[in-house]
Design goal:
The complex is a heterodimer.
Chain A lengths: L8 E5 L4 E6 L9 E6 L6 E6 L4 E2 L4 E4 L5 E6 L8 E7 L12 E6 L1
Parallel strand pairs in A: 1-9
Antiparallel strand pairs in A: 2-7, 3-4, 3-8, 5-6, 6-7, 8-9
Chain B lengths: L3 E4 L2 E4 L4 E8 L5 E7 L6 E7 L2 E5 L6 E7 L2 E7 L7 E8 L11 E2 L3 E5 L1
Parallel strand pairs in B: 2-11
Antiparallel strand pairs in B: 1-3, 3-8, 4-5, 4-9, 5-6, 7-8, 9-10, 9-11
Classes of the chains: A mainly beta, B mainly beta.
Amino acid sequence: DAKTTQPPSMDCAEGRAANLPCNHSTISGNEYVYWYRQIHSQGPQYIIHGLKNNETNEMASLIITEDRKSSTLILPHATLRDTAVYYCIREYRDDKIIFGKGTRLHILP
Amino acid sequence: ETGVTQTPRHLVMGMTNKKSLKCEQHLGHNAMYWYKQSAKKPLELMFVYSLEERVENNSVPSRFSPECPNSSHLFLHLHTLQPEDSALYLCASSQTWTWGLYNEQFFGPGTRLTVL
């Protein structure tokens, strides 16, 4: 049980911002939220992680709600190369992490 | 290039064969992982090694036997596999085993295994 909920698929027009939601309503106070993506036939790639504050790096931004029950990954200017499955993952207290089914993001030309 | 390499990239084996998957990381990390990714199923964590000691075995059948001779190399020895073991096997490494800041995992490209 991944204990995160993501929509199975989303579409986004090329050049627009892709906003990928994740629900983690049972997250505890010291658990991080991590995002990975997996492009077809490749291993997963780390994108970003956060605890309470919003985070930004060269790939994406992570917006975490104040109650920490949900977050949104933002790809500011989506390109065709961003087509992938995006995983939202909680860090577990006992150091296990479990990948869910993720969101399959389709970037439309 | 993530700094984690896996060989072979593709492997076809019969149920009576013995084969090994190899993973090597060039990142100076202390923790290494094996994952299994079956078609239409989420990634499943199989084994975790920290400083060459196995710290996690996620109820994996004994026909999968991991080996970590040093912190840079990880093997998965396979014997008498079943067709349902066909999957993408991914290796990953991280700075340490305990998750926290700067502990993101770096994944290799995977080995696509087919068991006939």
